[in-house]
Structure formats: structure tokens, C-alpha cells
Design goal:
23% of the residues lie in helices and 26% in strands. The protein is of the alpha+beta class.
């Protein structure tokens, strides 16, 4: 949401020893959020562990989104930006 954040993390056994976000705190930035954080920024960090979270690029082929390599996805983005030119 544009909040300046500090994430408190910890390795957990139930996550296979991976880091897990335990707390989200605002990072002081007078130009963005002073010392505050919006509710969405504070309480939606659980989404990082969601099975619905995208973990790799998807590209549209034949009207469907299919997994792609990063190089392929970035090349498609670059081609689209070039094609759009000043109309972006």
C-alpha cells in the first residue's frame, strides 16, 4: 500500500526452518507515513504464506495464463512497453 514497513521475522520449525513474518511495524518516514501504518499494511502480511500467492511469472498464451520463465516474461513486458511507446 506504500507504507514504509519493518518486518519482524523468525525461523519456525513448522515452516521447515524458513523465516516467517511475526510482526509488521511502521518505519518512521515523515514524507510517506510519519509513524503510522494503514490497517491493510499492518494486517495483510499473512498473504505472504497464502497458497494463492503468485510465486512465478504467468504469461497469456492462447487466452490462458501459463507459467513462464522470468526471462520470457520480462522480454514480453519490454516488447509491450516498446510497442506502446509514448501511449503507455
Amino acid at each position: 500500500m506504500g507504507c514504509n514497513l519493518t518486518l519482524n521475522v523468525r525461523r519456525e520449525n513448522k515452516s521447515g526452518g524458513n523465516f516467517v513474518i511475526k510482526r509488521v511495524m511502521p518505519r518512521q518516514n515523515e514524507k510517506v507515513n510519519e509513524i503510522w501504518i494503514c490497517d491493510k499494511g499492518r494486517f495483510t502480511y499473512h498473504y505472504t504464506e497464502s497458497p494463492q500467492r503468485l510465486t512465478q511469472p504467468l504469461v497469456r498464451k492462447g487466452g490462458e495464463l501459463v507459467p513462464a520463465a522470468w526471462d520470457e516474461a520480462l522480454e514480453l513486458v519490454a516488447a509491450g512497453l516498446k510497442e506502446a511507446g509514448r501511449n503507455i
